[in-house]
Amino acid sequence: MGENAKTALEANIVMALRQVYDPEIPVNIYDLGLIYEINVDKDHKVDLKMTLTAPNCPIADELVANVAEAVRDVPGVVDVVIELVFEPAWSQDMMSEEAKLELGLL
Q1: Could you name the CATH architecture of 3-102?
Q2: Residue 80 forms beta bridges with which residues?
Q3: pTM of the predicted model, to two decimals?
Q4: Would you say 71 and 4 are in contact if contact means Cβ atoms under 8 Å apart?
């Protein structure tokens, strides 16, 4: 896959992730800073590292499934593997400026 195609695919993945919301917070998971890493290989397989706002999140399985579905639905993506990580621990500092504004933190 050429670098332009990879960049375009990654941009489409980010757009898809911005459609996934934590049901308890009115901000998408990407702008919340829950996505730590997105890697797309030459075969269009996506490895994604993400976290949760809290390790004991009651909807963790549902949220991970929603992320996997959103990424798989991106045209060109062949498969996605999600690794749920808790290091570094999520904090409000990881949120985008837009997310902080939406939540009244600015």
Answers
A1: 2-Layer Sandwich (3.30)
A2: 46
A3: 0.90
A4: no
**What span, in angstroms and rounded, lies between the C-alpha atoms of 8 and 84?**
25
Q: Return the closest-CA partner of residue 93 out of 32, 36, 50, 48.
A: 32
Residues 9, 38 contacting (CB under 8 angstroms)? no
Euclidean distance between CA atoms 22 and 28, whole angstroms: 7
What are 36's two structure tokens? 């730590």
**Please, are residues 82 and 68 in contact by the beta-carbon 8 Å criterion?**
yes
Question: Under DSSP, is residue 69 helix (H, G, I), strand (E, B) or coil?
Answer: helix
> d(Cα 32, Cα 71) in Å, to the nearest integer?
17
* Alpha-carbon gap, residue 35 to 51, rounded angstroms: 7
φ and ψ of 35, to 5 deg: -95, 115
Q: pLDDT (tens digit, 9 = 90+) per residue, 7-42?
A: 889 999 999 999 999 888 889 999 999 999 999 998
How do the domains of the chain map onto residue ranges?
3-102
